[in-house]
Write a structure and sequence with these properties.
The complex is a heterodimer of chains A (299) and B (409).
Chain A lengths: L22 E12 L2 E8 L2 H6 L7 E6 L3 E6 L9 E7 L3 H7 L6 E8 L12 E7 L7 H9 L6 E8 L11 H6 L3 E6 L17 E2 L2 H7 L7 E6 L2 H13 L7 E4 L15 E2 L2 E2 H4 L2 E3 H8 L5
Parallel strand pairs in A: 7-8, 7-11, 8-9, 9-10, 11-12
Antiparallel strand pairs in A: 1-2, 1-6, 2-5, 3-4, 3-6, 12-15, 13-14
Helix pairs in contact in A: 5-6
Chain B lengths: L1 H4 L20 E5 L2 H11 L3 E8 L2 E6 L10 E6 L2 E6 L16 H4 L3 E10 L2 E5 L8 E6 L1 H15 L6 H8 L2 E5 L10 H4 L11 E6 L2 E6 L2 H13 L3 E2 L2 H20 L17 H6 L6 H6 L7 H5 L6 E7 L5 E8 L9 E2 L2 E2 L4 H20 L9 H4 L7 H10 L9
The chains are: A alpha/beta (299), B alpha+beta (409).
The complex binds flavin-adenine dinucleotide, iron/sulfur cluster (2 copies) and FE2/S2 (inorganic) cluster.
One iron/sulfur cluster (SF4) binds next to helix 13 of chain B.
Chain lengths: 299, 409
């Protein structure tokens, strides 16, 4: 039945902040992670804004370069220190290329945080499996920081990271610290760099294959596990299917989607995916809620 | 209901010492009084907009003279067809809806949403946005009010409130009109959005024998009528006159339900909304999407004229120095490749997938998102589609053959 259309349905009196209001941030430092991918360490200029800013792992900010444009970028730093924001960005186009030309000390604008977080809080005692394809790990790094600090509250924490080639693996210099905190970290690459040899690339003695291969080998993958996944849509669907086959409930598999975004607050309509707005209903969704829509091409 | 609590009595609102018209009262306005109404609205500093004939259509434009209202014009509408015809017997508001709606004013096609300045190498956002006069719109129909209520849910009803829309909405003054006729493309009777104007207006006019029975819907409406009655004495409507005025849109609604297809006449539309959300989401791979895509030009007309479509994107406008930047929001449409662009391509690369997005969002996704359908039944998308694609026909086709499957290319 169609709900009635009232006239007018909403009394426009509720006080609310301006969703377009942004804050100046200064680039404190830039780290080149892998070719074309940099992590920007950002600080608010306004002390009061810095003190009031909080975020949860999995949320994102809109980074705005005035005159160039705005891009949705996951927050990749530790939520325990919300005044220091790290964003790991691949230069792929208009905004991200311009960002790559900025130097420490320069400023840009930031709105956020937006979107819902990875569901960590109410999942203590479970086996947490993070699965990331390529730059998808950037959306999980905040969760990894939190899980490393609170490792004892979870049965186990495993990070599975897949990339096209060894040079695509992100944050490799942090693996040791994550392992020392009690996290299991495994990585795999599709194959050697383009034009390289048959089996693996020079200097790569790790696994070759798909990230789902790592998932298949995971003994803890069961009804006790929660899977958090971020990567391209087909990769996430494959991960979810593998996990379900291994006994993980569809409600315990969470995917972080990416779509075109202009507003981040359910107003611009660009991020729609079936009945949901990726920006505010997501970007993290239980697989069970979106499975039927992921199965439809070009939705 | 307030109307019942405020029975209008003869002579009740005459200016000489008797009480002014209050919310729920009905008074008579003559055609000449429309100018006084416009003057009263403008006197309060409002920008007044009303229907006028321009470019062979009735559109909303700034209105200073009541004589510019489209008196004696009838609009013939059908799929891909709109034609104005003179009819000396027609009243001031006997056209129905044109290509414009309240959306054009509350959610304008272009709008500055932020201003930024770089000084000594540091960017900051400026606080001020240009002020706008409050707006009054004359001639708003039941379906327009329904469309407004739907956009209210989008821009005001969620966690985030759009500041520009809110500012304009709060000061908006609405002079509604009860339709006396419906175009063949009108199907508000089947969406529950019309044709009777029932709430959400400041004043509502029902045209009767060359004058208007005017219902007062708000304190603001009463205040404006008080200004009018300072210039001329207004006669209250009698009980019988109020009943007769109320009966007019009710009779039209019945007539719309009874409409039958007639040879040589445009087909009267209606939309069966029963279970429509599940019907559409269960048929995302129905072959009809490919079929309609073979006719659809992806021209975006339907989304531009639709009073509820709200998609937008944001552009940057910099001055020559690059140090002063305005962010400008403009309408977007799910019929463009840009709407769903990701990783250098478009998620919805085919016309079939884009038409499917439009129809399923409007009639299914909207229900999940805003607790209401996104379609008021105004028929604009049918009329202004260059190839006459008809939303009611597309839904009926899927309903008739539900369950067929074929993935859009
Ligand atoms: C919730 C969310 C979180 C995100 N988190 C991150 C993150 O943490 N880090 C990150 O780097 N990105 C992230 N993204 C993606 C990021 O928002 C986009 O990459 C960014 O908006 C691109 O903006 P742009 O102006 O630089 O590129 P645009 O100019 O808009 O280009 C858009 C896309 O076009 C593609 N493209 C451009 N030219 C070509 C070409 N010639 N061939 C093929 N493809 C081409 C690029 O792949 C790019 O993705 C996230 C997105 C969302 C929705
Ligand atoms: S979808 Fe068509 S009929 Fe429905 S409100 Fe929009 S323009 Fe009017
Ligand atoms: S997605 Fe399409 S149908 Fe929905 S509001 Fe945007 S333009 Fe209109
Ligand atoms: S990004 Fe605008 S609605 Fe989601």
């Amino acid at each position: 039945m169609m709900p009635a259309v009232g006239c007018p349905a909403v009394v426009p009196t509720a006080p609310a902040g301006d969703p377009w209001r942004s804050h100046t941030v200064r680039i404190e430092g830039i780290v080149e992670e892998i070719p074309g991918v940099r992590t920007y360490d950002l600080r608010f200029l306004d002390e009061a804004v810095a003190r009031g800013y909080r975020f949860a792992p999995g949320q994102f900010n809109m980074l705005h370069l005035p005159g160039i444009g705005e891009a949705a970028i996951s927050i990749s730093s530790d939520p325990a220190d919300p005044a220091r924001l790290a964003h790991t960005v691949r230069a792929v186009g208009n905004v991200t290329d311009a960002l790559a030309r900025l130097q420490p000390g320069e400023t840009l604008m930031l709105r956020g945080p937006f979107g819902g977080p990875w569901p960590l809080a109410d999942r203590t005692g479970r086996d947490i499996v993070l699965v990331a394809g390529g730059l998808g790990l950037a959306s999980q790094r905040a969760a990894i920081c939190e899980l490393a600090r609170q490792r004892s509250q979870y049965a186990s924490v495993t990070v599975l990271h897949g990339a096209k080639e060894p040079a695509g693996l992100l944050y490799t210099c942090e693996y040791r610290a994550w392992q020392e905190a009690g996290l299991e970290v495994r990585s795999i690459v599709d194959g050697p760099p383009a034009g390289g040899g048959a089996a693996a690339s020079p200097g790569w003695d790790g696994r070759v294959g798909l990230v789902t291969d790592l998932l298949e080998e995971l003994t803890i993958l069961s009804g006790q596990a929660t899977v958090l996944c971020c990567g391209p849509d087909p990769m996430m669907t494959a991960v979810a299917r593998t996990a379900i086959r291994r006994g993980v409930a569809a409600e315990e598999i969470f995917l972080s989607l990416e779509r075109n975004m202009a507003c981040a607050v359910r107003h611009c309509g660009l991020c729609q995916f079936g009945p949901v707005f990726v920006c505010q209903d997501g970007p993290v969704f239980p697989f069970a809620a979106i499975e039927r829509f992921l199965a439809v091409a070009h939705l | 209901m307030q109307r019942e609590n405020h029975p209008a009595g003869p002579g009740r609102c005459q200016v000489d010492g008797s009480p002014q018209a209050a919310v729920g009262d009905w008074v008579w306005l003559n055609v000449a009084d429309l100018q006084l109404l416009i003057d009263a609205l403008r006197h309060d500093g409002r920008r007044v907009v009303g229907p006028q004939v321009a470019d062979a259509a009735v559109v909303y434009r700034d209105l200073e003279r009541a004589a510019d209202l489209p008196r004696g014009w009838i609009d013939e509408q059908d799929g891909g067809h709109y034609r104005l015809r003179r009819d000396e017997a027609a009243g001031v508001f006997d056209h129905v809806v044109g290509p414009h709606s309240l959306k054009n004013f509350l959610f304008p096609a272009r709008e500055t949403i932020g201003r930024f300045l770089r000084e000594d190498g540091t960017w900051r956002q400026l606080d001020d946005l240009p002020p706008e006069p409050p707006l009054a719109v004359i001639g708003v129909r039941a379906c327009d009010l329904a469309g407004l209520a739907i956009q209210d849910r989008v821009f005001l009803g969620g966690e985030s409130v759009d500041p520009g829309y809110r500012r304009r909405r709060e000061s908006l003054f609405l002079v509604a009109v009860n339709c006396r006729r419906a175009a063949a493309t009108c199907f508000c009777h089947s969406t529950g959005c019309g044709p009777a104007v029932s709430a959400g207006f400041d004043l509502a006019l029902t045209e009767r024998d060359g004058r208007f029975a005017c219902e007062v819907g708000s304190e603001r409406g009463a205040a404006v009528l008080a200004t009018v009655s300072a210039a001329t004495s207004l006669l209250a409507c009698s009980h019988d006159e109020v009943s007769a005025a109320r009966g007019q849109p009710a009779a039209l609604e019945q007539a719309m339900h009874a409409r039958q297809e007639e040879a040589g006449q445009p087909k009267p539309r209606s939309l069966n909304t029963e279970g429509i959300r599940d019907l559409l989401f269960d048929n995302l791979e129905h072959p009809r999407w490919e079929e309609v895509a073979s006719r659809c030009l992806s021209c975006t007309n339907c989304t531009l004229v639709c009073p509820t479509c709200f998609c937008s994107s944001v552009g940057e406008v910099a001055d020559l120095s690059g140090d002063a930047v305005e962010r400008e929001r403009h309408w977007a449409s799910c019929f463009t490749l840009d709407h769903a662009r990701m990783h250098g391509t478009s998620v919805r690369s085919s016309t079939a997938s884009r038409y499917r997005q439009w129809l399923t969002h409007k009639l299914a996704g909207w229900i999940d998102q805003f607790g209401t359908s996104g379609c008021t039944g105004c028929g604009r998308c049918i009329t202004w589609c260059p190839v006459g694609i008809d939303i009611t026909e597309e839904v009926a086709a899927i309903r008739d053959t539900a369950g067929q499957k074929e993935s859009p290319a």
